[in-house]
Amino acid sequence: MKERKVQLLLPKSQIELSIAQEKEHEPSSHEQVHQERADDEVSVPCILFYLSGMANSDIINENILRMLQSKSIRTKENLIEQVHKEIISVTDTNKLATLEEAVNALLSGDAILMVDGEMTALEMATAGTEKRALDEPQSESMIRGPRISFIESLDINLTLIRGELRDPNLRFVVHEIGRRSKQKVVVCYVEGLTNPDIVNEVNRRLKTIDIDIAGDSGRIEQWIEDSFLSPFPQVVDTERPDRVIYNLMKGKIAILVDGCPFALMAPISVGDAFLAMEDHSQRWLIGSSMRILRFVAMFIALFLPGLYVALTSYHPGMIPTQLTLSLAATREGGPFPAIVEVLLMAVTFEILQEAGIRLPKIIGQTIGIVGGIVIGDVAVSAGIVGPALVIVTSLTAMSSYTIPNYSFSVSLRILRFLFVIAASILGLYGIILVFIMICIHIVNLKSIGVPYSGAFAPNFLDHMKDLIIRAPVTALRKRPAYLEPLNQHKVNLGGRKQ
């Protein structure tokens, strides 16, 4: 007796009723696409669902529909398993047991195949939304080093990391965050190197996030940080894969969010804000000089306006006589005290910087440069402020731009106003008092449970080699001790002479 074939039929099935019950939860702008085929042979009703625009139509047509219409199966038992193994040619598949799982997969861009009489559905990876091409980093430019940045695709970002860090111990832990957005958040670390307590703590904090939409990495950062009241960032963000890899090899973890081109790195210390990847691409003398310059610029950006107010208002005797006379001459006839002048110019430059960021790139650069020159010149010509204050304000603004980490740079700009106000009340004593308070805060602050000041104490001499300066590569033998990595040594000199 000739064996009869069982042909798949799309769709016209009773299972459409169950999907129709969930249709009100689907976005109305997405169209459900399905095709049907009938044959004289015995037919089994089934239906294929996918969202146009979200799924790759080439994969749907060539790897699924064409296979379903051209091939047949010989038995009605275990139809889903037979379709999976013998008919479709999609490698990434998954069986789904609930309708909720099917809807979530559908909204992610995957195709769902349901067969009448089967208790499970087949999910097939067909997501095919347009992606931005790989480009140079926009916020972390450098002269020497890799010129590639993350994009909004999580799969590509993970591939960039895996492609450069070919360590079999590299681990990716996937979390799904957002009751409605269902975004994937991945924790990256190197097993056998990263402290397990850090990995467990990060995973624990991510699991406690219960919100409608995860958003970008900036929102994730705010959910996992130790102190939301602190002005200092407790997690560093970057769009450079090479920087992520470098920090993974230190014993840190990285967090990547689907749809966001920035990765988060933790734990960090206060010194991480001054480190740039280019330091390791240059010879040690050049890299060390640049780091020392950044620390000097940090003190200028933080203290210079406050010192100007304190010295001109409370301690003019500490200024050389000729300079005192010169400052007095430039400020003679001014309508405002020093504190008002400093705050007025500082706020003006902050407005110019914010306008330069929000405007289109070409116009923003013009506004920032021309606006600063024009406003400074007009303010001096009108006698509102003195030329010395324009120099102080400009030098302060330029110094804050040398900080590689944008979030930390903004924190310094905010704290600068606190120093100015304290200087206007108590002079130099006010500046010292605020500085002591900030130091106490930093000592008590933590990043993922790790001391924020860990790079400065208790092993300052060891950490200084890759913190204040960038020592020769032969001297950078150990990973940061404050991270408590499982493997301290990262360099084996062998027979090389030091």
Automatic annotation (TrEMBL):
The chain crosses the membrane at residues 292-314, 373-397, 417-443. Pfam families: GerA. One of its GO terms (biological process) is spore germination. The keyword Ribosomal protein does not apply. Keywords: Membrane, Transmembrane, Transmembrane helix. It comes from the Bacteria. One of its GO terms (cellular component) is membrane. Belongs to the GerABKA family. PANTHER family: LEUCINE ZIPPER PROTEIN 4, SPORE GERMINATION PROTEIN. This is Spore germination protein. It comes from Ureibacillus terrenus.
